[in-house]
Write a structure and sequence with these properties.
Blueprint lengths: L23 H35 L3 H38 L4 H28 L1 H8 L9 H12 L2 H17 L4 H5 L1 H14 L7 H26 L14 H17 L1 H14 L5 H37 L4 H25 L1 H9 L6 H14 L2 H17 L4 H25 L1 H26 L5 H24 L1 H4 L7 H24 L4 H10 L1 H4 L2
Helix pairs in contact: 1-8, 1-12, 1-22, 2-3, 2-5, 2-6, 2-10, 2-11, 2-12, 3-6, 3-10, 4-5, 5-9, 6-9, 8-9, 10-17, 11-12, 11-17, 12-13, 12-15, 12-16, 12-18, 13-16, 13-19, 14-15, 15-18, 16-18, 17-18, 19-21
Length: 545
């Protein structure tokens, strides 16, 4: 198959050694990821606009609680079937076909066969989900029964939005094909269409409607369709057909992908399963509890999705190729990714922990989202903050296992994680409310990241452990300098409770001061991450597109 690389093609995947002085591997990884950052920033900005619009129009009340819960349920199935487990099994399989020099026909048949199997499975799941909506809503939001009309409203919304699962899963299949061809930018941009769809409908119709539920459901379905349509065109340009091949669905290659997906289902959807567990306990804290946990978690996703997801998205196909081609560079690529991810997550966690209330006030305050909502959400964000470090590291290590085509180990770890998180919520949500849910999440995620790291090192080795420990210690010390500056300047941001220019300037001033302290301290302690970032950015112009 002749493949013409488009503008979104991301470099050559060259590798080398950060700790040993050859930083070409990290430079290549960051160059891949950096070309996604701008579009991902736009995606996150539009995601924030969506959430801000909904919080402004709906407030932390019954309808917004119902909307979050109704959309979380199919979104969890999406992560289980259409994104996480599918990508973990499908991308390495397609990469192996390409690395072995297989004929283009086999690659096309794999895509069409997986598409057919996916459509069959998803249709059954959607039909079952619509029928079982009363049970699902009661299972994940039992506290809604205490408010008259809240449970029936959530059930109706859940039934209306469940077909979104099919649309977004087809989009995920397209993303897998594009990622396997080193095309990351367009898939990263696709969620922008969903965000704008929901935000536009909410602002233009929901706030004026006596029955907003139908407008909200229509916006979700429209956004899902647009995410699929915009990627389908590029997949076809690569020579693949998106017509399901039912005979190919029973081929050995497709069966292998499906078998690999099974153990990966609980692991890759663990974050969404955690959200459903948090939804369960948040619903018991009263009206607005679901919104508080949702808003706090969404803020952690701003940092996670902007940089961490880009690096780990690039890691899976890159590491899979290195293992398939036996280049000997896989271990160094993994170590560099770990270091770069922690370089982002450690200071981001410190900022969210020590500036939680002004950040929430700036991002969501105003309209029907009042000062009380800001205070409770801020406390919840502070409890969630350091879980970001665990989430980022766990995602890197999980992708490392998947590149070895091992989905069982992360699966068992994810089961333990879910049980630990549930137990933590049961213990802490009652006395502490939604901040207790955030703290349970942080403890569970840090434990899970440690579990994956120890097992991976035991089975495959991580090489120079000393370099990783030194990097973590250096970044932690630099983050302490950041925290000191933020605490010192805390009175400057104390008045920030609503979205506005004055609050933005106050928060930005403290972030600049704290960020500068982090970078200077890291540089003084011998950090090399900035050098990697500079080289990656400088090489973008000459790397070709």
């Amino acid at each position: 198959m002749s493949v013409v690389r488009e503008a979104e093609n991301c470099g050559d995947g060259s590798t080398g050694g950060l700790a040993g002085g050859d930083e070409s591997a990290a430079t290549g990884m960051v160059r891949h990821a950096s070309r996604m950052v701008a579009v991902t920033l736009l995606s996150r900005v539009t995601g924030y606009i969506r959430d801000k619009t909904l919080s402004y129009v709906l407030g932390a009340g019954v309808v917004y609680d119902a909307f979050i819960t109704a959309t979380r349920i199919p979104s969890t199935f999406r992560a289980l079937l259409g994104e996480g487990a599918l990508h973990a099994a499908f991308i390495p399989s397609l990469a192996q076909l390409r690395a072995s020099g297989a004929e283009a026909r086999k690659a096309r048949e794999l895509v069409q066969g997986v598409l057919a199997a996916l459509l069959l499975i998803l249709s059954l799941v959607v039909a079952g989900g619509i029928l079982a909506s009363p049970l699902l809503v009661e299972l994940f939001a039992p506290g809604f029964a205490a408010t008259p009309g809240k449970m029936p409203l959530t059930i109706l919304l859940n039934r209306l939005v469940f077909p979104y699962l099919i649309l977004v899963s087809l989009a995920a299949l397209c993303q897998g094909v594009l990622n396997s061809h080193d095309r990351f930018v367009l898939p990263a941009a696709a969620p922008i269409l969903y965000n704008l769809s929901v935000a536009g409908v909410a602002w233009g119709f929901v706030r004026h409607s006596a029955t907003p539920v139908y407008w909200l459901a229509g916006a979700v379905l429209l956004g899902g369709f647009l995410q699929f349509a915009v990627q389908a065109r590029s997949v076809r340009r690569l020579g693949y057909s998106l017509r399901p091949a039912w005979r190919a669905a029973t081929s050995p290659e497709v069966k292998k992908v499906l078998l690999l997906m099974i153990p990966g289902i609980p692991m890759l959807g663990i974050y969404q399963l955690n959200q459903l567990v948090s939804n369960f306990f948040a619903s018991l804290t009263g009206d607005g509890g679901v919104v508080y946990t949702f808003a706090a978690y969404r803020i952690t996703e701003l940092a996670f999705g902007t940089v961490v997801v880009q690096l780990t998205t690039v890691l899976l196909p890159t590491l899979s190729r290195h293992l398939a081609e036996d280049t000997g560079q896989a271990g160094e690529t993994l170590r560099q990714t770990i270091s770069l991810v922690s370089f982002v997550t450690i200071p981001a966690a410190a900022v969210m922990a020590f500036m939680s209330r002004p950040i929430v006030g700036l991002l969501f305050g105003g309209g029907r989202f009042d000062a009380h909502d800001v205070t409770v959400t801020g406390a919840t964000l502070g409890a969630y903050a350091f879980g970001l470090i665990g989430i980022g590291h766990a995602k890197v290590m999980a992708n490392a296992f998947f590149a070895h085509r091992d989905t069982k180990t992360p699966m068992w770890g994810s089961v333990v994680l879910l049980l630990a998180f549930t137990a933590g919520c049961a213990l802490m949500a009652g006395p502490w409310g939604t901040p207790g849910i955030g703290l349970a999440n942080t403890i569970a995620m840090l434990g899970y990241a440690t579990f994956l790291t120890v097992l991976y090192a035991h089975r495959h080795g991580l090489g120079r452990w000393g370099s990783l420990v030194a990097a973590a210690a250096r970044q932690g010390a630099a983050a302490a300098a950041l925290a000191g500056v933020v605490i010192l300047l805390r009175p400057l941001t104390a008045p920030v409770e609503t979205t506005g220019l004055d609050g933005a300037l106050r928060v930005a001033a403290v972030l600049v001061a704290g960020g500068s302290a982090y970078l200077v301290a890291g540089w003084a302690l011998g950090g090399r991450e900035l050098r990697v970032l500079r080289r990656a950015m400088a090489s973008r112009g000459g790397a070709g597109s």
